[in-house]
Design a protein that fits this description.
This protein is mainly beta and about 375 residues long. The protein folds into 3 domains: about 110 residues, Sandwich (Immunoglobulin-like); about 80 residues, Immunoglobulin-like; about 90 residues, Immunoglobulin-like. The protein is built from 2 helices and 23 strands. This is LPXTG-motif cell wall anchor domain. Keywords: Membrane, Signal, Transmembrane, Transmembrane helix.
């Protein structure tokens, strides 16, 4: 019985000692493992500048209730081959004084730009937390910068020009010069007319401008752009296809029992026309008719009377003779004036004139076709 009692007592002592030892280890080791930093890095080549870009990340860990820390030591180096150089990293530096500017459990990142000749970079730090704990080690990370990091050549600049050539009804040519919005350079245009005169224009991307060439110089047009071998346009501009010519004035004549009557009708889209009527007996008469109007002149009817119309646009006019109608009352015409015709008789004369016009009798051209231009 005594031996069994002694055995239990020794086992109890060993167990108690082990428990005390483990408790001591926990008390010493727990704070140390709860405060620590982790340094990591990534690297990439910026081909726009030909530089290495290293992104450093520091994770600080601490027990609950510890929110901030600072750096008490920072060692940053770059290497070109075996040659090391001490450098600084913006945003990672030793903190002086009592401030703890960095937040626990929130990763701190900083960017470091390095010349493309650098082959390696390293960073080591030591942190101190606001509860007074100081990092025992010196956590470090090294990043190898393998391969080449060259700046890419600048993108070539080029215009994207177009040109349109439009002639109006007067023959004036408008050349519209465009440079596309996605062009990467100005378009330098030269517009040369038939006489060799050149007009120049520089057009920025996404913009346009126009130049005009007078009709007398617009028989041929050439549009060129600097840096482009072939002209955008080289030749004769197409004539305008939307031009409207004015209507032609028309003329009719009518022999009544006692008169030779001429009428000129000018359409609304015509131009003012002036005609002179010269009889072989008596004085000439001149008639001017505005667009959209009509006018008449008359001469006393008598045997042998002829009247010759003349004016701008009339070609080879021929004399027109008065011919006495067969249904005239005795004593009318031929120099023996009768009573004035009114009422139904006058209406009959007018109707007769229309009938003659309808069957094509007595038409003559009072003016040649003139061009009347309309532009949009």
């Amino acid at each position: 019985m005594n031996r069994l009692h002694a055995l239990f007592r020794r086992v109890s002592v060993v167990a108690a000692g082990a428990l005390l030892g483990l408790t001591g280890v926990a008390l010493v080791a727990s704070p140390a493992s709860a405060h620590h930093s982790v340094v990591t890095a990534t690297a990439a080549c910026d081909t726009d500048t030909g530089e290495w870009v290293v992104t450093w990340t520091i994770d600080s860990k601490a027990p609950p209730g510890v929110d901030n820390y600072k750096f008490v030591k920072v060692v940053a180096k770059t290497y070109v081959g075996d040659k090391a150089t001490d450098v600084t990293i913006p945003g990672i530096a030793v903190t002086k004084g009592k401030n703890y500017p960095y937040s626990v459990n929130t990763p701190l990142t900083a960017e470091q730009r390095l010349d493309n000749t650098v082959t390696k970079a390293s960073l080591a730090i030591r942190a101190k937390w606001e509860n007074g704990k100081v990092e025992r080690g010196l956590p470090e990370e090294t990043v190898e910068l393998g391969g080449t990091c060259d700046q890419k050549p600048p993108a070539p600049t080029s215009p994207k020009p177009t040109a349109s050539v439009v002639s109006d009804c007067e023959g004036v040519v408008t050349v519209t010069l465009n440079n596309a919005a996605d062009a990467t350079a100005k378009a330098k245009f030269t517009v040369t007319d038939a006489e060799g005169s050149a007009q120049k224009a520089n057009v920025k991307p996404g913009e346009s401008t126009s130049v005009q060439v007078p009709a007398e110089k617009a028989a041929t047009i050439k549009v060129e752009v600097k840096g482009i071998d072939e002209p955008l346009f080289d030749g004769k501009p197409a004539p305008a296809d939307n031009c409207v010519e004015p209507g032609e004035p028309t003329g009719t004549y009518q022999s009544t029992c006692d008169e030779l009557i001429f009428e000129v009708n000018n359409p609304a889209d015509g131009e003012t026309v002036t005609t002179t009527f010269t009889p072989n007996k008596g004085e000439p008469q001149t008639l001017t008719v505005e667009p959209g109007q009509s006018g008449t002149v008359s001469f006393p009817g008598e045997e042998g009377l002829t009247v010759t119309p003349s004016g701008d646009g009339l070609e080879d006019p021929e004399p027109i003779a008065w011919t006495k109608p067969e249904d005239c009352a005795p004593g009318s015409g031929g120099g023996e004036p009768g009573l004035p015709l009114t009422g139904a008789a006058a209406g009959g004369i007018a109707a007769g004139a229309v009938v003659l016009l309808a069957v094509g009798g007595g038409l003559f051209v009072m003016a040649r076709r003139r061009k009347l231009r309309f532009t949009a």
